[in-house]
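Morning, I've got a small favour to ask if you have a moment. I've been staring at a protein lately and its backbone has me curious. You're getting the sequence in one-letter code plus the fold written as tokens. I've dropped the whole record in just underneath, so have a look:
=====
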Amino acid sequence: MALIDQRLAPVGQRIFGHGCTLGIELLFRWRADNDELLLPSSFLPRVREAGLMHLVNEAMLTHAVRFAAASSSVAEPPFVSVNLSAEHLGAPGLTRRIGEQLASRNVSPDRLMIEITESEYVTLDAAWYRSARDLQSLGVKLAIDDFGSGYSSIERLRHLPVTHIKFDRLLVQSATGPFGSIVEGVARFATISGIDIIAEGIETIVDLEAMETMGVRAFQGFLLERPLQLGNILNELHAREQRTLAQLTSPTAPSSPRSASAELSPEAVTAM
């Protein structure tokens, strides 16, 4: 566990909406001997082969709660999201351990989001469902990541104990093609079912505007911001708060309502 703590160096990518930072997703990174940060594809297969994935999951959870606590001082603290394996989510005692970690750092449960990939949710068992419902009862957010990447079951979505789905990049791209009406139908179904949507993989203004037209209000992707060191994100959150306070103390003309694409243009995001 000590080696994992030394080597695991997660970065964060912000989730934007309503003109502010709604959340931050923690992304796996592994610090190599030369101090280079390796992407998951470079080290996770070896971690799984060594049977250490559960330790990495626990370490990422700890990082997520720790960062949620560190960002609690901003006026509107974002939620912090972390991707776990479905197997880990169904592990005995997980809800208790998460509850204890949140309580020890005085973090509200609704500021933690746990994601599992869509490819895993097709094999969920009874233990996972129990754990997911326990976490929801605690107040933790649950999301299906990479939704629309090839394993979707819209009808099953209605019965899953999740609060969010994250539209996969392929689904986002399809919104402006011949399957746009299908994507819009999925978005409408999720909304009717009380499930919030986060569109990830936003890389162009066209993507952003298409998702906005379909009623999506939360966005993540390289167009808006690339992954950053967690310390840099924390600095950005505090800097934005200072800019907001400065604006409130300076008389300005009332601004007209703006669309998400205007609020989340690359120029606007740099000021968030």
